[in-house]
Amino acid sequence: MLTRMPDRSGFPWIDPMRATVGDSTDDPAWAAELKWDGLRTQVATDGRAVLARSSRGRDITEQFPELADLGRRLGTSAVLDGELVVFEGDRPSFPRVLQRLNSLRAGERRLADNPAVYVVFDLLVLDGNPLLELPYATRRQVLDDLDVDGPSSRLSPSVPGGGSELLALARQRDLEGIVVKRLDSTYRPGIRTANWRKVKIRLRQEFVVGGWLAGQGSLEDGIGSLVLGVWEDGELVVAGLAGSGLTDGDRRRLTDQLVERPTPPFTEVPAFPRRPTWVEPELVAEIEFGDWPADGMLRHPVFLGLRDDRDPTDITREVAPPGESR
Fold it and tell me: What structural domains does the chain harbor?
């Protein structure tokens, strides 16, 4: 819903509309966009100052000072929806954008090493007028007329009926996938809707951290792997273990932030190779994996980073089992 956050800006905050996992389409009633591997971000501006917020409404303006140029470029008040991306070569790097998010201040060296680009895909408010009830096609037409492209911002391409075309391009560039959107869909704040469908090439999603297992050798007294879970029907369900991808820095940060508890946060606990240390289900981890059987655990999971911008109570299974419609 459209509200005003009690902060220095007074800019409106709109709970983001979210996509479900689904299939691609070339139907001319839909448009396709690339799925950018970054941080969902809402940027509000009065034509001078800007305010950037994560998908949970957290102020992340200080971490991404490059966005200041966008406010001056537009020269009018607006609220934009998009994705903050840090590129490694010509591909988005999720670990690098997380480094920027998790830094308290973006120093000159960090900016030079990991410059961020805001990829804009929707326009929610213009000149103080909410556009939420307008069809996606109309919002995009208005957005296309704005001067969005600059040193640190760009407009995400939108191709009506172009699902196959963009999906092939995403595969060629080894991107995460695409998003297809109904041209007549209005913007529904806070709703996960089938009118927007994300089509994934590489399987990945967020998981709640509910515990950890000690490692071996030098890690026998520390975090070797994380116990992951998702919410199903109001219960936290174990989804697997992830140790691959964890760096020493990740382990230090997890040790500082995880809060131990005496009992598991999960409804049912499978047999583990070692006794877990249970923690409060308060942290969210981004995980890439090879497969996720309907009645089993994640296969080949790889830890990509912590998601401070996601609410752990919102984390559910996104990837359908093999053989079912995605």
Answer: 2-200 (3.30.470.30), 204-314 (2.40.50.140)
